[in-house]
Amino acid sequence: MGTQSSTRTAGATTPGTWRNWAGNVTARPARVVAPRTVEEVREAVRRAAADGLKVKAVGTGHSFTSAAATDGVLVRPQALAGIRRIDREAGTVTVAAGTALKDLNAALAQEGLSLTNMGDIMEQTVSGATSTGTHGTGRDSASIAAQIRSLDLVTADGELLTCSEKENPEVFAAARVGIGALGIVTSITFAVEPLFLLTAREEPMSFERVTDEFEQHWAENEHFEFYWFPHTGNCNTKRNNRSAGPAAPNGPVSGWIEDELLSNGVFQAACSLGRAVPATIPSIARVASRALSARTYTDIPYKVFTSPRRVRFVEMEYALPREAAVGALRELRAMVDASDLRISFPVEVRTAPADDIALSTASGRETAYVAVHMYKGTPYQAYFTAAERIFTAHGGRPHWGKVHTRDAAYFSEVYPRFGEFTALRDRLDPDRVFGNDYLRRVLGD
């Protein structure tokens, strides 16, 4: 998570250096504010504008880009947290923007409710996760942002806009994935449903089989994903489908071995060894890819969709047209095999249905995601550059919160509604109160 070295004073902090979770982005804001109410957010924005300072809200720092970095006013919304309202008849929950997904998931479960789909970690704030397009995997169910039914947004003049399909619909169409460019989200209303059970089936599978059968696995499962281990022909697949029960969670010992020992403890040691002695990585990959065994378990959604991720890394992820994913992955494997690169982290492949959000990575098209990672502290530029060359050749759209080198000219080509978003930004924030270097690059000036 992001860290802030600072001294607290009456709702604000004396600024120090802010760092993101991966440690690859730092910022030194002029002022840090931790609002407890929506009115305090509005006041922070008005005061920043009056002082000629930019203002950015930051969640837990899980983005690998500098989307939230600023030398102006940094707004920490974590005190603006908690469920505000549950409407069982409408099937919605309204939650303050600084609420951590893990807290929302646990609170919903206690109420017998759940989000339909979610990503594979839940450390982020709801506003940070949705603003950058965080997603899981799903044949029919989409990203977290696609489950938003309304949101409240503080704009550059300090006004509060409520946005939904009926109220300010043109803002709603864009602000669900707004990258912090349109204002500061203060609350979000999500669609929820009665708590259900998922059965997860995890199974090792060869690269050839999983790529040959990719469309079949996608069609037959509500949630399908897999990981390929570079330098091997081995993959690990995960199929999550709704279950009538009964619940059959992972046992405490087997769950600890898979999720803590192998996925965090041993993996951390292996990555550290690989960073120190890169020549060992292919051998480690062969052992690691065989260490995870087949298992099946049934539990409530967030305990199946999400898992702990304590090994720190840097990530690039591209959203590709689903029909292009297998070809791109085969090109990626051929590139790695023909190179001197040593890759200790698996490559993750997930899917999403098309959605109607202007700058969602799945906007208007059936999507597959291919994510590449490198262990924190390991040079990643050569690998990511080569991977990005493959992804962009297929019209890929990078995740807004993950490493990429694309700019506004590129995005105007791969997002049909890019101009709609930038025109709305010009209307809501003509003076770029919410601007920073990252937004200048990806949206233009």
Write the layout of secondary structure elements.
Layout: E1 3-4, E2 7-9, E3 12-14, E4 18-19, E5 26-27, E6 31-33, H1 38-50, E7 55-57, E8 73-75, E9 83-87, E10 92-96, H2 101-110, E11 113-114, H3 126-131, E12 148-154, E13 160-164, H4 169-175, E14 184-191, E15 193-194, E16 197-206, H5 207-212, H6 214-220, E17 223-228, E18 234-243, H7 252-276, H8 281-291, E19 295-299, H9 301-305, E20 313-321, H10 325-337, E21 347-352, E22 367-375, H11 381-393, E23 397-398, H12 408-414, H13 418-428, H14 437-443
Parallel strand pairs: 6-8, 7-8
Antiparallel strand pairs: 1-4, 2-3, 3-6, 4-5, 9-10, 10-14, 11-15, 12-13, 12-14, 16-18, 16-19, 17-18, 17-21, 20-22, 20-23, 21-22
Q: Total helix count?
A: 14
Shape descriptor reads: globular
| Poorly predicted parts | 1-11
The total beta strand count reads: 23
Q: Average pLDDT across residues?
A: 93
Bin the helical content: 25-40%
Strand pairing plus helix content: what structural class? alpha+beta
Alpha carbon gap, first and last residue: 30 Å
Proportion of strand residues: 25-35%
Kindly report the spatial arrangement of strands forming the biggest sheet: 19-16-18-17-21-22-20-23
How would a crystallographer describe the biggest sheet? 8 strands, antiparallel
Task: Return Rg in Å.
Answer: 21 Å
